Amino acid sequence: VNGSMRVCIDIGGTKVAVSLAPDRAAAGTPPPLQARRTEPTAKTGDDHALARQVLRLVDEVCAEANVAPGSITAAGVSSCGPFVLDGQGRIELAAPNICGGLAGPARGLPNDWMSAPLQAPLAERFKTLRVENDCIAALEAERRWGALQGLDHCAYVTWSTGIGVGLCVDGRVLRGKHGNAGHAGHMFVSDD
Questions:
Q1: Tens digit of pLDDT for each residue in 1-19?
Q2: Reported pTM
Q3: CA triple 96-40-87, angle to 5 deg
Q4: Cβ atoms within 10 A of the Cβ of 2, count?
């Protein structure tokens, strides 16, 4: 792999995917992925288990691509939500399908997390770090390379482990105070 690389991180309620891509891609096309690892989202251990999983997967894709892990200084994170901010204003994941302390015992998650730190532990490793709600990241990608090019008013909806929405109004992507604008939310349904 030649040239400068960045790591792309996708965190979902079911899986985590990490890949390497060139820092710069040809105009009008998304950057090609060089190496990729995917595994189920960490939900056991302490609340830093998810961040440790991501960093381990980064090391693994670097090894696969024969890239020195320390040479990767930029990371983009696309994560399911919702987000909360810690005392220093850094993003933490507060998804009830990952954080057992939010979900309650009926959901059977093997942890008592109220949130999972993301931005703080990843910022210790990467000089440049951007963490976005996955629907906002997908909305921006569609506006740049896909079906939403040239649209000033648009929405992106995903339906997977949870339901998410990214919104753009007057050409501005809406993020909100904590990065949750447009978040459609997550609801538990009880069969009784």
A1: 345 889 999 999 999 999 9
A2: 0.87
A3: 45
A4: 6
